Amino acid sequence: MAKYQTLLYYCYTTIANAEQFAADHLQFCKSLGLTGRIIVADEGLNGTVSGTTEACGTYMKAVHADERFASTEFKIDEVDEPSFIKMHCRYKAEIVHSGLRDPHIIDPKKQTGVHLAPNEFLEMKDRDDVVILDVRSNYEHSLGKFKNAVTLDIDNFRDFPSKINELAQYKGKKILTYCTGGIKCEKASALLLHEGFEEVYQLHGGIIKYGKEAGGKDFEGKCYVFDNRVAVDVNTVNPVVISKCYNCGKTTAKMINCANPECNEHFTQCDECGWELDGCCSNECKSHPRKRLYDGTGYYVKVPQQINLNKEGRGAFIKDLRPLA
């Protein structure tokens, strides 16, 4: 039996003095021996934390005891070791960065798409009048997505609002949105309703809950997660691998960060190319003087580091993902 758990959760709720709450909450998490990453904003909480089963149980009870977070739903994974190295709890403007901060435009506490339980989503997703919409970023849906899902060319969720016009062709259909745990869909579905889409739904609990309750049927590939595990299996019914090696095109589900810290490209790479390029995305990065030591995992402990934003399509989203070193 696994000794540790990893908890994925979010809650849209009003938090007064959110900056102070973040500082106090960090100390509370550390007192329990938890590791993880929590974002606190005036609009709520968004977190993934990991620790012993006992510590996670204490944490969930404490969160639920606060009436502001009483409705928080935790997705619980049993893990062999903690999914993070350190504990971070930071105050930010939003709990998921969308650039949509005006509550008069969208407010997930007041209006979102209709929440579908995993089995309801499963029953609806293949209907002729339905469009399945993945609201996640490129690196996520390239690793895994629902069969026949519409994906958007975005490097970060904050790019989603600018893509709304590309979805106009689907206005006469039911839109079923999904993401990893549900948090992005709260804002995406609210924005779609604001823009005139009449029938908007969202997968409650996201891909993670769908895997646990509906067997992950027709989710192709793996699901990207924002911790040391990087990717998790979802589909126990009809699993396939859809992602390709960035360098040779071979089918692979392994995702890494480039060993060159000034690139830090987030990409899929097979083991053969990984060892040949020493964990880099290119020979240019392989010869970089600051290249990190590659141990076959492509995961690096975070230390402050300047990001090179000059490479097209890179960098803008990396600092919000896996650690740099």
From TrEMBL:
The UniProt record lists the keyword Membrane: no
Pfam families, per the entry: Rhodanese (PF00581), Rhodanese_C (PF12368), UPF0176_N (PF17773)
Single GO biological process annotation from the record: tRNA modification
EC class (word): oxidoreductase
Keywords associated with the record: Oxidoreductase, Transferase, tRNA processing
Domain Rhodanese: 126-219
Protein family membership: Belongs to the TrhO family.
Name by which UniProt lists this protein: tRNA uridine(34) hydroxylase
Lineage: Bacteria, Pseudomonadati, Bacteroidota, Sphingobacteriia, Sphingobacteriales
